[in-house]
């Protein structure tokens, strides 16, 4: 991957999330891979994985995956926060 393209893509953003900023949140780059005409950089921290996918130099998506969590002790405030985040699409469509 060319150094110029690498620098430019780090500065690309969707909303306020960049590859540069995610590193400061403690995420580590664990995989880089090409698929069809796309290129993905995968970051991981604990049970959260975040993929930055590019079509050439254009950032086209940022996707998060959360690994299965078994028997997580939780309180009401934490559950409300998780519900708001994890059921975002469902909550929008039910309005």
Secondary-structure-derived class: alpha+beta
- Which descriptor suits the 3D outline? elongated
Q: What's the N-to-C terminus distance? A: 44 Å
- Poorly predicted runs: 1-12
Query: What is the string of SSEs from the N terminus onward?
Result: HHEEEEHH
Determine the strand fraction and express it as a percent band.
Answer: 25-35%
Order of strands, main sheet, comes to 1-2-3-4
Strand count, sense and closure of the main sheet? 4 strands, antiparallel
- Helical percent range? 25-40%
Rg (C-alpha, Å)? 16 Å
Number of discrete helical segments: 4
Question: Would you give an account of this structure?
Answer:
34% of the residues lie in helices and 35% in strands. With 95 residues, it is an alpha+beta fold. It has a four-stranded antiparallel sheet with strand order 1-2-3-4. The longest helix has 11 residues, at 76-86. It starts with a helix and ends with a helix. Mean pLDDT is 82; it is low at 1-12.
Search tags:
alpha+beta, 4-stranded antiparallel beta sheet
Give the SSE map.
Blueprint: H1 3-11, H2 19-24, E1 28-35, E2 38-45, E3 48-55, E4 58-66, H3 76-86, H4 88-93
Antiparallel strand pairs: 1-2, 2-3, 3-4
Give a short summary of the structure:
By secondary structure, the chain is an alpha+beta fold. The chain contains four helices and four strands.
